[in-house]
Amino acid sequence: MGPSVAMVGGAKFQQHVLEWTKQSNNLYFTVSFFVIFVWVIYTEKLPDIARWQMNTTAGRLLALLLLYIVHMLAGWVPALLFAIGIALTWANQPLYKPIGITEEGYNDMKVVKAGPHRWFVEEALGEYPTKITQDRVTTEAVQEESSGQSSRTSK
Amino acid sequence: MWADKLKSSTHIDRGLRLIVAVTLAIWLLSVGMHMETPYPEVLVELYALPLTRIMLLLMVLAAATWCPAVGILAAIAYVCLGADVMFFTHGGQNLAMED
Predict the structure, then answer these.
(1) Less Cβ crowding at N or C end of chain A, within 10 Å?
(2) Lowest mean per-residue pLDDT among A15-19, A31-35, B78-82
(3) pLDDT 10s digits, A130-144
(4) Helix (H, G, I), strand (E, B) or coil at A128
C-alpha cells in the first residue's frame, strides 16, 4: 500500500472502494456468504435433481471439498453455515431418484374456433363459446417398468 | 482447540457460555432420544416462515461468533429442527403414501 493521496469529493470515496476491494476479497466473500445464507434458508426449494445429485458419492465428496475450501478461504463461521446447508440438503434427499418431468396425457387435444351456429344446449344455457376443444385424444395404457417377468393381475 | 473457547477471561462470560452450552446439550439430548420429536407446535408453524429461519440462523451465527462450542451446538440443533420439520412436511408424506 502506497501513501494515501489527498483527494476531494467522490475521488476519495472511490479510492476507499478500490482499497477495500484490493485489500481483500471482501466483496466476493460477502456475496458468497449471502448466497450460502439463502441456500440454507430455502434448502427445500432446491430442485429434486440437485438434492439427489448432492447425495451421490461424487456429490458428497465435492461438498466436503467445497466445505474445506470455504473453511480455508473464509474462516470457520462461513464454513459452519456451509456445513448447515450441506446437512439440510442431505437430510432432504428425495426418497426416489427423480426421473424428470413426465408429460401428462391429453397433450394432442386440438382447439378449434367455434362456428357461427350454436347448439341447442348452448342457446338454452345462454353460452357463447368462442373455442371448442376436441374430445378425441390419444392415450396409452399404463406400462410396467420392470423388464423381467410380468406379474399376473388376476387368478 | 475450539472446546477451549468455553474458557473465558471473565467469570460471567464463562458462566453464560456454560449455561447456554448445557441448555443446548440438554435440548439435543431430548431431541435425539425420540423417534418422532414432539416439537412445540408453535415452533413448527413458525419454522414455515422464512423470517423465523433467518432469525434462527442469525442467532446460530451470533452464537458461533461468541463461542465456537455454543455455535456448533446451536448449529446441530438448527439442523435437527430443519431436517425433522422438512421431513415430516415433505418427505414423510411421500413415504407414507408409498407404504
Answers:
(1) C
(2) A15-19
(3) 888 776 666 667 777
(4) coil
Would residue A142 count as lying in a domain? no
Q: Which three cell numbers stand for residue A130?
A: 368462442
Please report the pLDDT score of residue A79 as a whole number: 93
For residue A30, the one-letter residue type is T
Answer yes or no: pTM beyond 0.80.
Answer: no
The number of distinct structural domains making up chain A is 1
Residues of B in contact with A44 (CB under 8 A): 86, 90
Average of pLDDT values for B80-94? 71
Residue A8 per-residue DSSP state = -
Chain A contact set for B5 (CB, 8 A):
none
The CA angle B84-B85-B89, to the nearest 5 degrees, is 115
Range of the domain at A62: 10-91
Count helices and strands (H / E) in chain A: 6, 2
| Closest Cβ–Cβ partner in A37, A81, A92 for B86 | A92
- Beta carbon pairs, A and B, within 8 Å: 53
End-to-end CA gap in chain B? 47
In a domain, A79, yes or no: yes
CB A127 within 8 A of CB A91: no
Q: Of B77, B78, B80, B84, which is closest to residue B24 (Cα–Cα)?
A: B77
